[in-house]
Amino acid sequence: MKISKILVTLGLILIISLTYSQENEETTEDEYVKMAGNISITPGFSYGESKAKGKKIENTFNFNVFAGKSHRLDGMEIGYFWNHNIEYAKGFQIGGLLNSVDGNFSGFQSAGLVNYAGNDVHGVQFAGISNFTKGSLKGASFAGIANYTGKDAKGAQFSGSVNYNEGNIKGFQGAGTINVVQGNVSGVQFAGTTNYVRGTTKGWQSAGCVNVTSNLASGVQTSGFLNYAKNVSSNSWQIGVVNISEKNEGVPIGLFSYVKELGVHYDVWGDETGFTNFGIRTGNKKHGNTLFAGIQVDSDDELYTLGYAFDRKFSFNNKGFVSLGISHQGIIEGFDHFEDWDDDDDEEWDFDWHALNKFELLFGLNLGVLDVYAGPTYNIFLSETNDGDDLAPYSLSESKEDDVWVRSWIGAKVGIRY
Question: What is the C-alpha separation between 290 and 172, in angstroms, rounded?
Fold first, then answer.
């Protein structure tokens, strides 16, 4: 049945070709024979070549049984395996395995394996493995594994693994693994692991692991681990576990946000809970990220704390400043049981974890290499095993909801920064 359908299809194509053969010859240019309908078995063995008599072929409709080659396409081309055009192709090109155009392509390309264009592409490409464009792209490329563009791209690129651009891109890039742009990006980049831009970015970079912009980043960088930009402009954001830049005028949010021109600062402070805290502050002049640890040694059991704080700093005359901050810290008790805990013991090592959230308003003064600061804090304590009475000097409120103790109070913080 399938063989019969194929033979009928081939017969219809041949009838169309013969019907238009006289018209083809009448519209023949000096160098080209325009075929309204053509059929090819392999390159060098086609109906069109028998009519062209050594001249170049321009197809309006072409069917390639195995593979076919012509100089131009202005219409539709379908091939079971490979379609090839030497000069350019316009319209629809559908190949079971490969489509290749040595020059420009405009329209729609779909191939089971690879689409290739030796120059520019204006349109849409679908490929099971790869779209390879040596020139520029204006449109959209969808590939199962990789897209390559040799010059600028304007539009969208989607691939299961890699998008690689030699020029600039304006639009959207989405890759399962990595996006690489040797020029500038204006738009959106999404990657499963990594985005790399050698030039500047303007827009949104989002990666599961790493974003890298070798020059200026304007917009937003979000990653599961690391964001890097040489410079970050104002009104821009870096959001990741680690943020690194040489100069940052935006908003870095992460556990560690290193800005080369400012370096790292070290804080020591105390508060009404009795903890002595040691912190590492990174960020820029306006926004700080602080990782800290502390210990309370004057209680019956030693208490430890680990936390993170974010602050917004407002400076006045390079000396005074006001800081608004928010922090979350875990308070740990029960480490004294560690000495009695045995790896071979079936019993689990049990310790208690409590949460303390703070909102703070600090007033500070710069004394050269040191900042001193102090101010009030609003505290919210949460725990499933402790009501927080020993931690708070007094309470504004206390309650127990869904087996969780909640206690709040006003406290104070005093510290220095180096």
Answer: 34
User: Cα–Cα distance between 369 and 69 in angstroms, integer?
Assistant: 75
Residue 281's contacts (CB-CB under 8 Å, 6 or more residues apart) are 264, 265, 266, 267, 288, 289, 290, 417
Whole-structure pTM value = 0.82
- 3-class SS at 260? coil
Cα 317 to Cα 314, 321, 366: the distances in Å are 10, 9, 10
Cα 350 from Cα 238, distance rounded (Å): 38
Torsion angles phi and psi, residue 24, rounded to 5: -60, -45
CA 330 to chain CA centroid, Å, is: 31
The one-letter code for the residue type at 297 is V
Taking a C-beta distance cutoff of 8 angstroms, is the pair 91, 107 a contact? yes
Which of 292, 285, 241, 246 has its CA nearest to residue 266? 292
Give the count of beta carbons closer than 10 Å to the beta carbon of residue 369. 7
- Give me the numbers of helices (H) and strands (E) for the chain, helices first please: 3, 35
Pairing mode, strands 303-316 and 287-296? antiparallel
Give SS3 for 150: coil
Q: Is 111 exposed, middle or buried (0-12, 13-18, 19+ CB in 10 A)?
A: buried
Residue by residue, pLDDT tens for the chain (418 residues) are: 444 444 334 443 443 343 333 334 434 456 877 877 777 777 766 565 656 666 787 878 888 888 888 888 889 999 889 999 999 999 999 999 999 999 999 999 999 999 999 999 999 999 999 999 999 999 999 999 999 999 999 999 999 999 999 999 999 999 999 999 999 999 999 999 999 999 999 999 999 999 999 999 999 999 999 999 999 999 999 999 999 999 999 999 999 999 999 999 999 999 999 999 999 999 999 999 999 999 987 766 678 999 999 999 999 887 899 999 999 999 887 555 444 434 444 444 445 678 999 999 999 999 988 999 999 999 999 988 888 888 888 999 989 888 899 999 999 999 999 9
Closest CA to 122 of 143, 144, 101: 101
**Torsions phi, psi for 34 (to 5 deg):** -90, 115
